[in-house]
Amino acid sequence: MTDTTAAEARPRAARTSGTVRVVGAGLLGSSIGHALRGLGVDVVLADASPAQLRLAIDYGAGRAAADDDRPGLIVVATPPDVVADVVERELASYPGAVVTDVASVKLEPLHELRARGVDLTHYIGSHPLAGRERGGAISARADIFVGRPWVVCRDGETPASDLALVEGLALDLGATPIEMTPEEHDRAVALVSHVPQLVASLLAGRFVDAPDGSLRLAGQGVRDTTRIAASAPELWVQILGANAAPVVDVLDALADDLRAVADALRAPERPGARRAVADTIRRGNDGVERLPGKHGQNRRFESLVVMVDDTPGQLGRLFGELGELGVNVEDLRLEHSPGAQFGLAEISVTPSVLRHAEEGLAERGWKIASIPS
């Protein structure tokens, strides 16, 4: 092995050092464990479920706790309804440690801890905006946080060294730390996470009694819209209950919008009805334009759709030939039509290389299904 290869094989230096205790060995907790262990950090796992704990340890997310453990950082990754209890216990058990939690609601646990009179000097609430439809240690991945926002809720009494520990954890896991107040965080996730979950679940719920023939027409658009409807009901009951007021505010506004569109479509020939529908679609266009894209940029990309045979190695060949053409893939979406022997790869590229990519792939024998305007 050359010196260069040996250097590349070694884990990069971590900002996080010493022992990190992770309480809760589910998806997020185990994913944190895997990522930190990949950087050479000592990770101790704890969980109320002995079976879950053993499974996470068997998968390599960390080790079992020992009596002489002295963690400098504790990450609470438990369900939202027990976060306050666990944070209080960990602060009392390890007074020299900084404690953070990764629950998706920040204000309710904070209010509960303050009501109990807990000293919160060394507590910093945080929340990585990452996850998967399936939970548990078996679904954990070390790269789940890469490129994702990680909200850190500090206050005026937070020691700078404590803040550095939590932000260093986020950076080590490949996330982007963003400072917000708990109030700002809970309003934000109501809009971009909690209400979308409900909308996806409500729409997918309409499929339960739909004719099979209707569902056979489903394409990638409806799959994208309802993907998160596969999430665990038990967890979302807790999340939505803990953030009820901001969620209701968004739902009420959304209900008004839906009612206005429904009224317009009840009498589409009425003066102003078509404009109301058009304005709804246009406002959606404007909203999508505000969503940050790759690397947090607001740049828009163009797309081309390539037909890919459903055989091994074809997608790899497509990427390889795009590389030979000097075309960087900004985003990729795959669609498989039921019963078809091919898939559709929708590739996002910068507008300046769209025509070059189309012509180059066509010369190499790829069939371009469409180029959306």
Automatic annotation (TrEMBL):
Residues 18-295 form the Prephenate/arogenate dehydrogenase domain. Belongs to the prephenate/arogenate dehydrogenase family. GO terms for molecular function: NAD+ binding; prephenate dehydrogenase (NAD+) activity; prephenate dehydrogenase (NADP+) activity. Its EC number is 1.3.1.12. It is an enzyme of class 1 (oxidoreductase). Pathway: Amino-acid biosynthesis; L-tyrosine biosynthesis; (4-hydroxyphenyl)pyruvate from prephenate (NAD(+) route): step 1/1. It comes from the Bacteria. Pfam families: PDH_C, PDH_N. GO terms for biological process: tyrosine biosynthetic process. Residues 303-373 form the ACT domain. It catalyses: prephenate + NAD(+) = 3-(4-hydroxyphenyl)pyruvate + CO2 + NADH. This is Prephenate dehydrogenase. Keywords: Amino-acid biosynthesis, Aromatic amino acid biosynthesis, NAD, Oxidoreductase, Tyrosine biosynthesis.
